[in-house]
Amino acid sequence: MLIAHITDSHIEIPEIDNAGRLADFDRVIAHIKQLKTVPDLVIHTGDISHCDRAEEYQFAKTAMERIGLPYEVIPGNKDSREGMAAVFDTPEQFVQKCVETDHWKILLLDTLSATSNMGDYCEARLAWLEGELKSTAKPVAIFMHHPSFVMSNNPYPFQFVEQKTADQFNNLVSGFECVKRVFSGHAHRNTTGCVGNIPATTLTAMSLDRRKGEYGDAFEGKPIYQLIELDDDGGFQTTLQACG
Ligand SMILES: [Fe+2]
């Protein structure tokens, strides 16, 4: 199974001067469209919009639908559940979903806080997640906007509202051997870490003006997304893509 993982597009309409975020999104879409191996799924891990405007979500939706592939969206702190629901028809309470394939369970989580730009995860969402993890023998890949691990290469290393909440989440997830990797956005830079003993990563923002970190000459001036190949036996590979 091949997943195109995109994140942090921060679409702003009307666009701020010289931001180029709409063009960056279009470049990513064009790159995914020309791949020789067609992805099975596109996942946007949030901060779809920058100002929670309907036209911003609509731009992203129209662009993703141009690929002609199934896609999923989860909210980032710049998005709202209400705003997303109006355009994507996602749930208004928690935007959580399980996508199950023959060999994998893919869990899309909602880490929005009611009061903060930081991540949060309440008892109701934990209960849903626990139910999903208990009910499968398949390998699991988790996608969520906010990383729940400490990012050692980030000037803002901890991005959950409370350590206690992050600990609850990490303790639950790391108690299940079936979870193979946790994928996030939010940090605007590539980071690796662990949720318990499970590898966890953040993917940099696709919008060039929001991108942090160094990626080498091949990525200079080119929006980034990643391809995630999930093997039938529970293994996986990820590769960064530079969109020319
Ligand atoms: Fe962001």
In short:
This protein is an alpha/beta fold and 244 residues long.
Give the topology string: H per helix, E per strand.
EHEHEHEEHEHEEEEE
Number of strands: 11
Helical/strand content category = alpha/beta
Major β-sheet annotation? 6 strands, mixed
CATH architecture: 4-Layer Sandwich
Categorize the overall geometry: globular
Individual helix count? 5
- What kind of assembly state do the chains in view correspond to? single chain
Low-confidence stretches: none
* CATH level 1 name: Alpha Beta
How would you characterize the overall build of this protein?
The chain has 244 residues and is α/β, with parallel strands linked by helices. The chain has one domain: Metallo-dependent phosphatases (Purple Acid Phosphatase, chain A, domain 2, 4-Layer Sandwich), CATH 3.60.21.10. 24% of the residues lie in helices and 23% in strands. It contains 5 helices and 11 strands, in the order βαβαβαββαβαβββββ. The chain has helices at 21-33, 54-67, 81-88, 123-134, 163-174; strands at 2-6, 41-44, 71-73, 97-100, 105-108, 140-144, 179-184, 191-195, 198-202, 224-230, 236-242. It has a 6-stranded mixed β-sheet with strand order 4-5-6-7-9-8. It has a 5-stranded mixed β-sheet with strand order 3-2-1-10-11, covered by helices on one side. Helix 1 (21-33) packs parallel to helix 2. The chain is globular, with a radius of gyration of 17 Å. The model has no long low-confidence stretch (mean pLDDT 97). Fe (ii) ion binds at residues 8, 10, 47, 76, 186, 188, 205. The site of fe (ii) ion (FE2) has 7 residues, from loops.
